[in-house]
Write a structure and sequence with these properties.
The protein is built from nine helices and no strands. The chain is mostly helical and 180 residues long. Helix 7 packs across helix 8. The longest helix has 32 residues. About 9% of the residues have low confidence.
Length: 180
């Protein structure tokens, strides 16, 4: 037996072991994700504990329940998926928005959110992108109308009068953001 044949046999055995190992972890993960409706953060914490408590809801998501519903009303049609043969119970728009707001409020990793919400980390990245695009498309003109020279001068004047910040046209609060 030559070296190349021996190498191929060993490589095939290693691939088979890796495949078995991957399937073992995949089965564990799939079970974790299929129990989302019973064990996920949204169903246990948000629906059972936070919905009725405005203070805790605001502390968890950093938005009021009223604002949560306001945003949801605008974007729910854009982020809703209907049941299909492949996905029997799609993730609700409420849960998608809650996941996105939690990500924005904490900056947690997708993997950490994956364990909390019982959604795979790769799907979380898709959901967050989808929800943020929907928010930008639907609410951009309402929350940030096209600036005019007059409106910027008024804002700048207000900042100067209230806070003694000259030539300031806006501020960000609630999260440390590195601006380059």
């Amino acid at each position: 037996m030559d070296v190349l044949t021996l190498y191929n046999i060993l490589e095939d055995e290693a691939d088979e072991e890796l495949l078995l190992l991957a399937n073992y972890f995949r089965d564990e993960e799939d079970e974790m994700f299929t129990e989302r409706s019973r064990e996920g953060c949204y169903n246990i914490l948000v629906e059972r504990r936070l919905i009725d408590n405005e203070y805790r809801f605001r502390a968890y998501f950093r938005v009021s329940f009223e604002l949560f519903n306001y945003i949801l009303d605008y974007i729910k049609d854009d982020i809703r998926r209907h049941p299909s043969n492949r996905v029997k119970r799609p993730i609700s728009p409420e849960e998608k928005l809650a996941l996105t707001l939690r990500f924005l409020a904490t900056g947690e990793s997708y993997r950490s959110l994956s364990f909390q919400f019982r959604i795979s980390h790769s799907w979380i990245s898709t959901i967050i992108k989808e929800v943020l695009e929907a928010i930008c498309n639907r609410l951009k003109n309402i929350t940030m109308p096209e600036p005019t020279e007059h409106s910027l001068k008024k804002i700048s004047n207000d900042f100067y009068e209230m806070w003694n910040f000259p030539n300031c046209c806006g501020a960000i609060d609630g999260k440390h953001i590195r601006i380059v």
